[in-house]
Every structure is written in structure tokens, then in C-alpha cells.
Amino acid sequence: MIITVLLLWAGAILALVPYDFVKQKGATMQPLQQFRGVWIATVDNIDWPSRPGLPASVQQQEFVNLLDTVQQMNMNAVVVQVKPMADAFYPSQYGPWSAYLTGTQGKDPGYNPLAFMVSEAHKRHLEFHAWFNPYRLSMHDDINALAANHPARQHPDWVVHYGGKLYYNPGIPAVREFIVNSMLEVVNGYHIDAVHMDDYFYPYPVAGQAFPDDATYRQYNTGHFTNKADWRRDNVNQLVHELSVKIKRARAHVKFGISPFGVWRNKATDPTGSDTQAGIQNYDDLYADTRTWIRNNWLDYIAPQIYWNTGYPPAAYDKLVDWWSKEVTGHQVHLYIGEAAYKIGTNQPVAWTNPEEMPGHLHLDQRYPQVKGNIFFSLKDLLRNPLGFKDRLSNDLYKQKAVVPPMPWL
Fold first, then answer.
1. Against a cut of 0.90, is the pTM above it?
2. Is residue 345 part of a domain?
3. Fewer beta carbons within 10 angstroms: which end of the chain, N or C?
């Protein structure tokens, strides 16, 4: 009992100091509280499993090895893609088994990967954020190539063909209800720490092709909207709001976070936007109204993908960190910065060949109390140790362990 009280007291003291630092001789100044996450992508077997069709025991050992490495880097969270393509890495009423497990969509892998992953993450004191892609169905446009029991084949009227791919139609209320329920299945069934969505809402625009939802707009626009863009944004807003409410209703401690594209709007489009000239804008092209989500406290965290270098003329990392920091000020929403680990050591552009580029991002972030941590895309890129960055994390930037910053509203 005494130990429990002391632990609670220590936690309370930490909560009163939201971004204190520790420093050892020769080490970088480091926060006591800092979100240190990494994306583990399963789509196309980017991070795990290394290829489809491996025996269950091999898949499990691969994942354990990944978590051990994450723990060695003193990270404290993994963001794992559990529904990459309207499928599932767990037995589900809302989608077939993922082909990235067995090579065949709908084929049982012989164990429950999600249950295994959550258990192994928690053994290592790592938060497990379950990452969902709500609308994307396939990388091809042949609905008959989906598993026979796929909900999309049972509801072909829900499906949109666009840019050679298949998507659930965000404008159909039944689709929204289906997606929300598919996520709640995981919230209710597993001890996850968070529900996570990335930047795929309405799909990224394909040159010369309009997203074919004219008929849906005519059917479901009840007269509130005079243009399709506002109606599309409202469709996404309703999904985000419903998830926000229903996740907390199901399990009040489970966090809800979204990692959008790094630019809300350019200043040339909206005077309150960022000083950028990005070719894509969340609000106008993906219909992701991040400002509304933040101002209504629908999210517990937002992790914009600021995948550009400091000083990059179209979208500078430093300018965007400053803009997003101001955006979350005064709201109950943590800000974590999405980092492009996959660019380290490349010439995309040449600034990424500088071994100080990514460490410079983390140092810059510490100047903003609103920035509570970072998420790296993706784990395989950290494991390559580009320009020695993985070693830099373990030996310097993340040399000291840190706890995930508390969210007093949860």
C-alpha cells in the first residue's frame, strides 16, 4: 500500500511539471516526459511481417525482435497498423484477415496477431496505438478480387473506384457507421492505449480525375451545404466527432489521435494558414479540417507529418512546427511531430545528407512546450541506422528514459 501511494505521489509530481528536463554530462538535455513513438506499417509488409506467408512463430519472433529494438532506443510507444486495407490483423466482423499475414486475404494466420502484439508491447512498458486506415479498400480496382466475405462485396454501393484503387465512400452515412463500429470492435476487445488514424481521408487527388461522388452528394446533402467541398469536410468531421465520443464512452482512458498531412492551408489560401507553398492542403484537397478537430477537443493528440527539412522553401520544418504549436495552444490536444526517418541520408533534398538534420528537428522541438514528442516513419528506416541516427537516439537524444506525457482530461 505504501509503495502504491508513493508511486501515485511521484506521478502527481511529474504531472505538475509537464516538460521538465534532465541532463547528464556529455548528454543532450532531455525531457522527463516525452512521447517517443514509431510507426510500424503492415501495408505492403513495409515493417512487419517481413513478408506474407511466414509461420506464426516466425511472425511472432520478428515482432518481438522489433519491440526489443524499440525498447533499446528508449522509446515508449508503437503505432501499429492493424487495419491497413479495410482488412484486419485480428478476427473481425468488419473485414477479412489481411493478406499481408498469409498472402491470401481472408485466410486465418492461426493466431491473433493483435492480441499478441498488445501483450508483448505492454510487457516492455510500451504504449500500443492501434492504427486504422478507414476508407482505403485496395491498391487495385477489381472488387471481385477481394475476399468472398469482404463487406465491400456485400455492399458494392459503398465502393468508389478512383485512381485505379477502391475506397469506401465517405459520403454515405452507413459507411461512416460501419467504420466507427469497426474501430470500436478493437477498443472494446483489446487493451489498446489509443486509436490512431493517419492522413488518408478523402484520397489524395489524382491528376485529371475527379472523385466520383456527384450522385452521393445529391442523395445525402440535405440542403445544409451549397458546395461539395464543405459537404465532404462535414462527412469527415462527423466521423472524427463520432469516434471521439464513442471511444470515450466505451473506454474513457483510450486516447484518440490523428496524424494528418503536415499542411492545413497555405497562407496564400488563408491568411491564418502556414507560411508554406505546399501543393496539397489538408482542408482543400483531403477535406481534413484539422482546425475544427483541435478547437473542439475531439482529439487527444495530433501528429502532423512534417516530412520536410528545416528551411525547405515550399514547406519548412521550422515554420510548420511553429504554426502547429500555435494551433494547439489553449486546447486539450497534445502535439507530436511526425518525422520522416525514411529521408535520413537521402538527397530528397540534399539537406537530408546532413547527419545533424534530424537531431536538429528534435532540438528545435524542445524549444516549444506545446510539442510533447515525436513519431518516426517508419521503424525499418530507423533500423537501417542512416547516418548513425539510431545510435544517436540510443546514446544521446533518447539516452534517458522518458514517460509518455499525461493527459489530465482522461
1. yes
2. yes
3. N
